[in-house]
Amino acid sequence: MARTSTVSAKPPRGAGPIAWMRDNLFSSPFNTALTLAALGLLWITVPPFINWAFINAVWSGETRDVCMAPETGACWAYIAARFDQIVYGFYEKAERWRADAVFIIGAIGIFWLATPGLRAKRAIGAFMLIAYPVISYVLLSGGLFGLDVVPSAKWGGLLLTLIVAVTGIVASLPLGILLALGRRSKLPVVRILCIGFIEFVRGVPLITILFMASNLLPLFLPEGLVFDKLLRALVAVALFSAAYMAEVVRGGLQAVPQGQYEAAASLGLGYWRMMGLIILPQALKTVMPSIVNTFIGLFKDTSLVSIIGFSDLLGIIQKGNADPEWSTPVTATTGYLFAAAIFWAFCFSMSRYSAWLERNVAGGKAGAGKT
Q1: Dihedral, 199, 203, 207, 209 alpha carbons, nearest 10
Q2: What are the sequence ranges of the domains in the chain?
Q3: Taking the model in full, what pTM does it have?
Q4: Spatial distance between the Cα atoms of 158 and 287, rounded to a whole number of angstroms
Q5: Reduced to 3 DSSP states, what percent helix, strand and coil does the chain have, rounded to the nearest 5?
Q6: For the segment 263-314, what is each residue's pLDDT rounded down to a tens digit?
Q7: What's the CATH code, domain 164-322+329-362?
């Protein structure tokens, strides 16, 4: 019987947490100094923040008196007292079920589209692009099917922030693609118009465009023709984001090798089929991080609508800070921290999903769900 020799499995050199720290954190005197400085900074900032935000925080109470004691941390009782207003703005309390329905339908649709392996993605996508905006507008505005009218001036809080962000995101991508294709068009009129629009919008701050849509646009409309102020703001945000998206898409189009265009032409594909089936999928995959970065910037820029009179999430927080019933030394800081946490949660989620999608698209795994 042959003897089998056993070979002791030795861990590879450099394995383990201690080796990792030696190689990555303390590999040189300079890196060691940076690591120690970073640890010192964390020690100075993180424990006091945790102490203020959680340990010494006030979590319940009906008035500002609970947050007036010395050494009081964050006043989360203020957030709890105004939570409904932070979410819905000044939307009628009896009609908030309509906003909840919009939230729930939107969340289910986004979850369905974002989760691989689920069926009927094309049908759900068509519903979210075509039917969902109409259903949301009818539910939120009212006036049909026996629903009471709720003017857009009463919309606010997180509800309004999501409306502006989702509208801008959904509208800016297709508009940006068309503008990018138009800028590369061989037709001089189309190319000049697209270039002029892109360069004009990119050269003007968003707040200026919002002011123009809010105050100047009605002066150029025919007498008796009135557009809702929120609709004007939505159009302004979508067009502003589309100009930046056009440049992102144009970068992706330029990254596609010329051989792909020639191969598509050799197959007899027309311009639009070539773009839709061959060129754009490659271009959009290449610039996916930049696309999501534009979306994240747009989501944060929604706070600018508060300057033209809308009470979005940040606007509601600012108005709450001025409420004398909750006026304390920590009220404003708590409110801004809460708003920052909400913005961070949405932006970080988009960033992580983009990273996941990028890895799966690169590996050919995206779109695994059957239609």
Answers
A1: -40
A2: 89-150, 164-322+329-362
A3: 0.86
A4: 29
A5: 75, 0, 25
A6: 988 988 888 999 999 999 999 988 988 999 999 999 999 999 988 888 899 9
A7: 1.10.3720.10
